[in-house]
Write a structure and sequence with these properties.
- The structure is a single chain.
- The chain has 7 helices and 37 strands.
- The protein has a 6-stranded mixed sheet, with helices on one face. A 6-stranded mixed sheet has the order 19-22-23-24-28-25. It has a 5-stranded mixed β-barrel with strand order 2-3-4-6-5.
- Helix 3 crosses helix 4.
- By secondary structure, the protein is mainly beta.
- It folds into 4 domains: 97 residues, OB fold (Dihydrolipoamide Acetyltransferase, E2P) (Beta Barrel), CATH 2.40.50; 119 residues, OB fold (Dihydrolipoamide Acetyltransferase, E2P) (Beta Barrel), CATH 2.40.50; 295 residues, 4-Layer Sandwich (Deoxyribonuclease I, Chain A); 88 residues, Sandwich (Immunoglobulin-like).
- The structure holds calcium ion (4 copies).
- One calcium ion binds next to loops.
Length: 660
């Protein structure tokens, strides 16, 4: 028995040492790794498809393909030096079948060129279903193309080009967005799951000669070889036709009668290195002025200290002398040394500013923890008599949210932050339902549920019906308005993570404020733009990793029944119908007056012909706008009546006739 076994080992050993002649698809196999790993293999008469710096790709000619979609007909040959072959060469290769960080290749090869100028094998066509957008994904969904020529038409870039020359793409016309739910393959019964958009892959251009794109740019056509690197599949293009317009997507110019608040996460703006700080403030100045269009108030996150903030304010002023911003920052001791801050333009009066929630704590597993590492920062502002507040937030990120050790803490902390803010904001609404509050900043949460915590749903009182592990508690009423949902679906993002566009930053307003809101937009020059400009002081592109958002409002509300056109004078109109029986409608207008109190004390009363008051139809504070009131006289006798409108100093009376 022992003798037979020894003989078998010797025979196998001899087999391994002698090169086996195989087709490429046999070397690749149907699995995730080559069945010949570590063995010497020979494969003859294949076509070179692409030559890289120290390697090349080759593929089985069409005539010899196994036509098996589960095996790749292509493979990389790694030389470690410049290959002396060209695309179209037919070659014989002997070398070691290797899995180099899970990329199948033939290494230490000897290469013989058989002939030149052969046609390249036909590329496999990718489309909206290949790679599959659906989970569960076959393990070899892209592995089966590894090393092989593929192509697609009318795809789209889903990220900007990174510093290595790579960008994310899909072989379909729809961009990939973060979707509601828990990251697949994690799941909790009854809760939504985000499929992770498996249809994404990278396109690798070369850092020495990168193709610069931004997310959303159309890829008219790409053909290239599939590679695997650092956990992701990608294509090295041999043909690439892509839109390279990287113009920033900026806010419109601010109309004269509007005011604005913006938010921007500054991605660790510190003064550790003064040269870096000078470049960065130059970029921030451009981003704030040219992309955000100089909002009247800018809420900033991740600013280290007052020196940094002051340097930025000074830079903006030196770039445009008409812009005078005052910086507000409360340096709060926290682990990152990063703080919330405001820049406030001249013309806006700041009456107070303070942190909230510094003392809030929650309990978990016998421990007590701070609810906020970065307590929200409140600013009280006033424009003439129009008072409003801006609450700047930077909530706990989702990092480690799925982790079996730390995940629970992250989830509970996010839930506790949401609850604290919901209660705090509802207290404001309870004490004064007309409070105009904008809660702006980096929520580290989406406008929908992430399956664990519906952060925005809890804070706004407008929960995502898909639900969350921590059910939204009924605290906030009336609901707050997340302006993110006002922006076009395709524009709802401030951040891009591996090709998934997502809104982490939001501007939420009380419903009392929403009636004054005229404009909201995410502005884009960062999150899905080329990283190449991050050290270019002359460009606003790649100023931060987040994009900003801007909203604008007037100090007078949007007309309720007039389609937004506000009256410019007091009017009490003749009732209609008139004569009437028994109901009629009375309409009146309260004008917009710039720079003065915009709430009127309004009364509308009905009198009989003897001057006796019959009824008060309106008695309250009202904003500029057009109003309409029904009057029902079914219990009154026929006759002449009068109605009188008082609004501030304005008084007007009209006559009407009830005919029964
Ligand atoms: Ca095949
Ligand atoms: Ca592989
Ligand atoms: Ca492989
Ligand atoms: Ca998806």
């Amino acid at each position: 028995m022992k003798k037979i076994f020894t003989m078998l080992v010797l025979i196998l050993g001899a087999f391994v040492l002698n090169a086996q002649t195989l087709e490429i698809y046999e070397i690749q196999g149907e699995g995730m790794t080559t069945p010949y790993e570590g063995q010497t293999v020979t494969t003859n008469n294949n076509i070179v498809t692409m030559v890289l710096g120290n390697s090349f790709f080759m593929q089985t000619p069409d005539s010899r393909s196994d036509n098996n979609p589960n095996t790749s007909d292509g493979i990389m040959v790694y030389l470690g030096q410049t290959p002396e072959v060209e695309a179209g060469d037919m070659v014989n290769v002997t070398g070691t079948a290797t899995e180099y960080y899970d990329m199948t290749e033939i290494s230490n090869p000897s290469v013989t060129v058989v002939s030149h100028n052969n046609p390249l094998p036909t590329a496999v066509l990718w489309d909206e279903n290949t790679p599959s957008p659906n989970q569960p994904w076959p393990e070899n969904e892209i592995e089966r193309f590894e090393g092989m020529l593929v192509e697609f038409y009318n795809g789209v870039a889903v990220s900007g080009t990174n510093i290595h020359g790579d960008f994310w793409a899909v072989a379909k016309s729809q961009r990939t967005f973060r979707e509601p739910g828990i990251d697949y393959p994690h799941r909790i019964s009854g809760l939504p799951v985000f499929d992770m958009n498996p249809e994404k892959f990278e396109i690798d251009t070369f850092s020495s000669d990168p193709t610069l794109v931004k997310g959303g740019n159309v890829i008219t056509h790409v053909k290239g070889c599939v590679r695997y690197s650092f956990g992701d599949y990608g294509i090295y293009p041999i043909e690439l036709e892509v839109d390279t317009d990287i113009t920033p997507d900026v806010a419109s110019d601010q109309p004269e009668n509007q005011y604005s608040v913006g938010t921007l996460n500054c991605h660790v703006l510190n003064d550790d290195d003064n040269a870096v700080l000078q470049t960065r403030v130059a970029k921030f100045s451009k981003y704030i002025r040219e992309v955000m269009k100089s909002p009247d108030i800018i809420a900033l996150q991740e600013v280290e200290n007052n020196n940094v903030l002051q340097t930025l304010a000074n830079k903006i002023h030196s770039d445009d002398a008409s812009l005078n911003y005052t910086g507000y920052i409360i340096e709060y001791d926290n682990f990152s040394g990063l703080n919330l801050a405001f820049l406030v333009k001249d013309g806006i009066t700041v009456t107070d500013n303070f942190l909230v929630g510094e003392t809030a704590t929650f309990n978990l597993g016998g421990g007590t923890y701070d609810t906020f590492d970065r307590p929200p920062y409140m600013l009280y502002a006033q424009i003439d008599n129009f008072a409003f507040r801006v609450l700047n937030v930077h909530l706990r990120s989702r990092n480690s949210i799925d982790d079996s050790q730390d995940g629970e803490f992250v989830r509970v902390k996010r839930h506790e932050q949401s609850l604290w803010l919901a209660n705090y904001l509802q207290n404001i609404q309870n004490s004064n339902p007309t409070s105009k509050v904008a809660i702006v900043g980096d929520y580290n949460a989406f406008e929908f549920t992430d399956g664990y915590v519906d952060v925005l749903g809890q804070i706004t009182g407008d929960p995502d019906p898909l639900g969350a592990l921590f059910e939204v508690q009924n605290i906030v009423n009336p609901p707050l308005v997340n302006l993110t949902k006002n922006d076009a679906q395709a524009n709802r993002y401030s951040y891009v993570y591996e090709g998934d566009a997502q809104a982490l930053d939001h501007i939420v307003v009380t419903s009392a404020f929403n009636n004054y809101v005229r404009y909201f937009k995410f502005v884009h020059a960062n999150s899905d733009y080329p990283e190449y400009f991050e050290n270019d002081a002359s460009s606003p592109i790649a100023t931060s990793d987040h994009d900003g958002a801007v909203f604008r409002f007037t100090t007078y509300p949007i007309g309720v029944e007039d389609g937004g056109v506000l009256p410019t004078k007091f009017v009490l109109n003749q009732n209609y119908p008139n004569p009437f029986n028994p109901t009629t409608t009375i309409t009146y207008s309260l004008p917009v007056t710039r720079g003065v109190e915009t709430q009127y004390t309004v009364s509308l009363q009905i009198f009989n012909s003897l001057g006796q008051k019959i009824v008060t139809l309106v008695n309250k504070e009202q904003a500029p706008g057009n109003y309409s009131v029904q009057f029902n006289a079914e219990n009154l006798p026929s006759g002449v009546y009068f109605y009188t409108l008082r609004a501030g100093d304005f008084v007007s009376t009209r006559k009407m006739i009830l005919m029964k």
